[in-house]
Fold this protein.
Amino acid sequence: MNKETLTWVGKWTFILAAAGSAVGLGNIWGFPYKAGTNGGGAFVLIYLGCILIIGLPIMISEIMLGKRYRGSPVSTMKDAATESASSSNWQAIGWGGLIAGVVILSFYSVLAGICLNYIFISLGLEGEIDSIAKFQQVTSSPLQLLLWHTIFILITAWIIAAGVISGIERMVKLLMPMLFILMIIMVVNAFINGNFSQAFSFLFSPDFSAVTANTYLSAMGQAFFSLSLGMGAIMCYGAYMSPDQEIYESSAIVAGLDTLIAMLAGLAIFPIIFAYGVEPNSGPGLVFISLLSIFADLPFGNIIGGLFFLLLSIAALSSSISLLEPSVAFFAEKNILSRPIASSMLAGIAWFIGLGSLLSFNVWSEYTFIGSRNFLDSMDLLANQFLLPLGGLFVAIFAGWKLNPSIAKAELGGSEFVFRLWQFFIRFISPVLVFGIFIFQFI
Ligand code: TRP
């Protein structure tokens, strides 16, 4: 396939695909539980700040580089460095991205598999259940986790094997409207069955007394992850963007949709958490344990619960394909492997690494890898605390300082003022903040 001519059909396809990448487990599972454990409003405010002043400028840079050089992150960075007479070592950003994608996919698929499994668990709910015991039962069985992890990664690999247009484009056009409708149903449910006003003030009235330095680190990590930044996923999708599409506007819509869905997820979950007198700070078990016990009690809770976990699974699928695409694009553009073979092989590697994460719920729960962390938490740390912030930092430094400004100006178009604004943020604000927060985690 000729990579130069491969282009999404219409302006909205890029937006849907990039929003599909951004909106995922991070928004609907991660954001609510982190907001819950970090005290609500203040975390939300810091998160919004990170999206705006760190995330958006980097997203614009990734899309711009992809759109101009039209390749996998490795060749995009290489061509970009060549055209600006910089060292070809900048392609390391691309390599880091391919690795981060496969590493994230490995545990993302295990978690998404649990969501798939929960669709059926919810549909089968009858009366009161012990949701803690249920979660333990699900996670203590390596075979059950393996089944759903395998199913999820097979679907991901199958979509990527089918190609950018008949795979990714077709799926996001189907999945994203479904996701939006399901989200609205969940918020309406929370409005009817929950304590909406308490949830609203929890999420939107900041209490800075609960804020620690860790809150900033967690909010920035969350913003990066949620926008799919730092590993070339958005760069890779940008490579299929039509050359005449506006970058600022598209980036703002994608970041806006991502933020909107995270907020709606909070408004779908916290009203019923509060109405049932459950504490909001239960951590990662918030949806699998706290919510499940409420679904068991709610009128038509089995259907609402089933739809909720379907929503989560759909969001996860439109994200997981963007984790696999960059590395498959790399092998396909070099004609080293065909798309179906590259897709099977790389998904196979992610599947295999995922076994470690799957076992860390049970057989390996006592084994520690990095520090006192089990395998899953170590992979999460490696990706979210190292690879993504570093990837984002170097993209910012490259786009701000190394790329010839006239190239950036030509690609970005728009007014001089907006260009200067982007340039100011990408040179001075985003990299300094990312670096500061990154270093801070070690002291
Ligand atoms: N953004 C997705 C989420 O919120 C996850 C994701 C998809 C991702 N592609 C990515 C994260 C690339 C980092 C980099 O769940």
Q: What stands out?
A: Residues 369 and 375 are 6 Å apart (CA to CA). Residues 21-22, 24-27, 104, 225-226, 228, 231, 233, 319, 322-323, 388 surround tryptophan (CB under 6 Å). The chain has one domain: 3-440.
